[in-house]
């Protein structure tokens, strides 16, 4: 027991202490400077934010849906809504009276006349999607109206208002993107001068704005006036063409050669026919009238004749 007691009395405190540096004073005395250890310092939240979020674990704000919601929404995301169910939901929510832009813009008649049937059908499909988006925005707006109209318990309603407002604004942005997509799919097929005009027209009840025909007529009138005011140089008369001009010589193809061609050409050459001897009667028949017939006195020659 005395040995253990002695060890307890001689034990040294090994707890971490602050580092010290010694400096000598003028009189030879040493001064100890205390250096704080950085591991023990805990930074405030403001300093942590100023240093940045690099290297820190990311925080997730994802929520866990109720099981009933998760099942139904997953089925719709995978298979879509039944057509009858979708139409019934859309009919339940009419467009707000003071927000007519939630009605999908119509295609201008002047533009539809210049499009093909397939382009018109494609535009109508996107317009149908905007009708569904408008109904979704209206449902959120109806709930927001109820929350804003009851100012009691603002501490509870403010987070709900913020959440629903965020959802409505995102849907409105998708609605606007669909309108821009409809215009971008139509404009490349139109006249270049009209294209510049239609890109600047604001969206209204119609896809390319109201009174489009009046604007088109104004552009045509301005263009016509510009052509009339434009100084066009006089045309230089063309020189008359030389009627005795001979065209380029025809290029003659080389004549085919070879053993077969030689045999063919030889076969086409007609051989001279042998003269046949004529009898005296035939010869006399072919003699010209008035010609003198000379009869030789030699019997041999007369026989040959």
From TrEMBL:
Residue segments, region Disordered: 15-34, 226-305
Basic residues biased stretches: 272-289
Bias-annotated ranges (Basic and acidic residues): 20-32
Name this protein carries in UniProt: Uncharacterized protein
Originating species: Helicoverpa armigera (Cotton bollworm)
Lineage of producing organism: Eukaryota, Metazoa, Ecdysozoa, Arthropoda, Hexapoda
Gene that this polypeptide is encoded by: HaOG207672
């Amino acid at each position: 027991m005395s040995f253990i007691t002695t060890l307890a009395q001689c034990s040294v405190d090994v707890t971490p202490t602050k580092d010290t540096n010694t400096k000598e004073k003028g009189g030879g005395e040493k001064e100890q400077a205390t250096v704080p250890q950085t591991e023990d310092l805990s930074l405030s939240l403001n300093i942590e934010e100023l240093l940045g979020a690099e290297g820190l674990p990311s925080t997730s704000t994802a929520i866990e849906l109720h099981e009933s919601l998760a099942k139904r929404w997953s089925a719709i995301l995978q298979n879509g809504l039944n057509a009858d169910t979708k139409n019934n939901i859309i009919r339940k929510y009419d467009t707000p009276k003071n927000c007519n832009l939630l009605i999908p813009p119509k295609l201008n008649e002047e533009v539809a006349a210049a499009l093909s049937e397939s382009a018109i059908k494609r535009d109508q499909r996107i317009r149908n999607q905007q009708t569904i988006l408008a109904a979704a925005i209206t449902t959120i707006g109806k709930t927001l109206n109820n929350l804003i109209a009851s100012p009691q318990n603002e501490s509870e309603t403010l987070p709900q208002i913020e959440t629903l407002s965020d959802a409505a604004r995102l849907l409105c942005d998708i609605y606007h993107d669909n309108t821009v997509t409809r215009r971008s799919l139509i404009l490349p097929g139109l006249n270049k001068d009209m294209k510049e005009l239609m890109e600047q027209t604001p969206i209204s009840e119609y896809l390319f704005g109201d009174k489009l025909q009046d604007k088109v007529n104004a552009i045509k009138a301005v263009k016509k006036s510009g052509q009339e005011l434009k100084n066009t140089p006089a045309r230089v008369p063309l020189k008359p063409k030389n009627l005795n001009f001979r065209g380029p010589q025809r290029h003659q193809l080389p004549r085919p050669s070879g053993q077969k061609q030689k045999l063919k050409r030889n076969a086409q050459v007609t051989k001279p026919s042998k003269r046949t001897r004529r009898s005296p009667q035939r010869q006399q028949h072919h003699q010209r009238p008035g010609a003198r017939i000379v009869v030789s006195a030699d019997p041999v020659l007369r026989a040959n004749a």
